[in-house]
């Protein structure tokens, strides 16, 4: 739930989603659910020359399981709070 | 039997005779041509002229090549059934003529003619159809003066031969034979021109032949003329009316179907007149075309037409009279008139279904030229249109161009928009196929599944990050944190909603729906629970094996299964904590009171404790420090959580419980912080070790918030006693290295963390400290640490400045303080002065080297690096604070030692040896900080 909670605070922010198929999509995070499925708006693929078929795509829904990394905007993440939240999560072993 | 005394002839008998050679032997003696090859053959056959056949075609008409220029239009146009039988009518006239041409025929042979007249009269009513038919328009020979007896079609060959044995020539015989042949084609429709030419030729033959029988001829002619004239009189009126059409059509016809060989034969005055009319007509047409150029409306064309018609009628009045005066039968004009009348009527029928343009074309009689004229008309109308537009707008060419471009642009734009709209509509239509593919209950079902997994026992804790982050954001934005972003459902659970959405309008709706969904789930679950209890099915549950629970639960499967309780490091830390706890026990509860004492006394006591039961240990390893820190963090989080969940004050029991819990957690924290570990246990002290990591420095302010004053004082005392053990003091020389080394940046980072963490957390204690406390702390600092080394660091300078400033504040309050209790005792003041003098004395040789700018490698080389004013600033501040406490002699020492430094700054500022205005200002501000403390100013320094 922690990462879900973090992503909830990042809606309407610009993120870069790196997929397991080496596709990197940057776009505005519109919503995320508990499976970390991601809905992006106004997207742009980073290496457009390699993925010309993505040029026309304007928004997308990404299944959470195909995501490798999500690059977050550093200024919108409270690192200390994130650490605390992590500690809290670690405190409650039953919540896993 | 001879009827009028003529020799009786029987055709059949004659034929028989002819076939058996009897005819020749009996009464045709002079026809030697038939007897060649016999004894009596006189050889005349050899004398026959065999050549000169090349002009035969001209004489007899060619049957070989037939032109393609027949006038079929009349035939095709006469499509209506009442006209069908009429083409045969002209040939009904023929018997009369043939009889008349017979030389032996007397006046008594009129009955057939009379009967013919009566027959004619049937047709010869005033109807235009009959007129047309009588005209026999197929005889298109222009030499119409002699066409009154065109043929002998019905005359049998045998007849002629028998009647005129002596006078007949070979030509005559041939003509007769041809006439007979002609008769066989009588009823075919395609023969007209050729036939009529032959008729004409036959006429000529007969005319030559009839020179002997002039009287009969003339009689017949007179009769015929009379009849035809009468006929013509009847037609005259109608012809006048149709004159316009006739003339036009004539021209057309001449263009279309010039009869073969017409021109050489027909150079008659009538033809010339016709040509003249033709020319006139053409001229008129040209005029019309010219006028057409200025016209584009149908009405006006018709108008003109009307005018032209009137013109032409008046124009041709004379010529028409000529026609009438002519003694011969129906003239060519008349025939044409009839034919064209028919066409005209035909057109009248068609007119109803034709377009106005075609209509006008017909009216103009330009039937064959119609496509051409139509094209011209269209072009002209277009031209007129543009002309009209130009006139209408009354604008210059340039303006027009602009307007046109604008119009084009607008059109294109509109088209584009339309295209776009259509594409959008198509897309929407395409997608709308999937509209309502899910019913509302389907959606609710899915929402329930999703929501059911979001419901937790502790929505706040599960959504901790979003909750706290939201709270921080709200407080930062200055919004009230009144609304909890958690949906709670009784005591059973709730859902964390995270950060409130900005500008989402459908959010509240969705929220409401979700709340309803969740409430339903919760109530359903509760009811099921009750049912379970009722039927005691609980005991049977899982009897057949467990179903896999919520495999779709959000958290991913854990790959590393680490038992946190069996962790060696943690147990190590715990044992460590245990030991320290033992130590803590040894000093007992009086430790707090002990810490409350002033620095020197505490120091003395700790010295005593050191001697008694000091267990020397190695300093904490980095790993231990990290583990301890994590434990501390957990405790701090627990404390914070407890603070948040503080029981309401009215519930005393809960408050007491809460206080007990809070206290126990706080005690754990205090123990874990290792402040009470004897001072000399290790170097660095365990507490200082904890502070050596940035994480520890950051933790301190959060932790000290919960500590009471006594513990804070103890902590402060320990910190100052072990100040030189701090990493930021030990590693401070790295800051004098060039900036881009990793050591420099690391120390810089730690220093920043220390200043913002540790100094900030001790600041409130010092700010409230009495003069006695400050004197004690300063004494402790001087006693336990190398104050020169400390003074050369930023944290050290910050601490010293803090202490000096606090004393300055106390001194200030001395003058206007009313509260006696606040006033420091004279002993304390004396103590302070002692400590200060000691400090000043210690630092005196090092004043110039307190400046970071003076400690750099460049400074050693003799020149000061630019841009060091910001790092120097705390030093100037410290010196200013020092100067405030200093006496006059100390002032002089300060000025003497710092003279060079001050002058350096002032000169470089005033002589413009600076990068920019900002730097100059910074230099002067720094100097002034110090000079103002001495009662001086940089402006007083003369260059």
Automatic annotation (TrEMBL), chain A:
Give compartment(s): Nucleus
PANTHER family (UniProt xref): SNRNP CORE PROTEIN FAMILY MEMBER, U6 SNRNA-ASSOCIATED SM-LIKE PROTEIN LSM2
Per the record, the domain of life is Eukaryota
Q: What GO CC annotations are associated with the protein? A: catalytic step 2 spliceosome; Lsm1-7-Pat1 complex; P-body; precatalytic spliceosome; U4/U6 x U5 tri-snRNP complex; U6 snRNP
Q: Which Gene Ontology terms describe the biological processes this protein takes part in?
A: mRNA splicing, via spliceosome
Q: List keywords of the entry alphabetically.
A: mRNA processing, mRNA splicing, Nucleus, Ribonucleoprotein, RNA-binding, Spliceosome
Q: Which gene encodes it?
A: LSM2
Belongs to which family?
Answer: Belongs to the snRNP Sm proteins family.
- Keyword presence, DNA repair: no
Alphabetically, the GO molecular function entries are:
RNA binding
Tell me the function of this protein.
Component of LSm protein complexes, which are involved in RNA processing and may function in a chaperone-like manner.
Q: Which CDD domains match?
A: LSm2
Per UniProt, residues of the Sm domain are 2-76
Any idea what this protein is called? LSM complex subunit LSm2
Give the main location: nucleus
TrEMBL record, chain B:
Q: Which UniProt keywords are present, listed alphabetically?
A: Cytoplasm, Nucleus, RNA-binding
| Low complexity: compositionally biased ranges | 138-152
Superkingdom of the source? Eukaryota
Polar residues composition-biased segments: 75-92, 564-574
Q: Where is the mRNA decay factor PAT1 domain?
A: 1-937
Q: Name one GO molecular function term.
A: RNA binding
- Provide one Gene Ontology cellular component: nucleus
Residue ranges under compositional bias (Basic and acidic residues)? 178-189, 199-208
One GO term under biological process is:
P-body assembly
Q: Where is this region: Disordered?
A: 1-166, 178-209, 247-266, 309-331, 528-551, 564-593
Q: Where in the cell is it found?
A: Cytoplasm, P-body; Nucleus
InterPro entries in UniProt: Pat1-like, PAT1_dom
What Pfam families does the database record attribute to this sequence?
PAT1
**Which regions span the lipid bilayer?**
none
State the similarity comment: Belongs to the PAT1 family.
Q: What is this protein called?
A: mRNA decay factor PAT1 domain-containing protein
The species this protein was found in = Marasmius oreades (fairy-ring Marasmius)
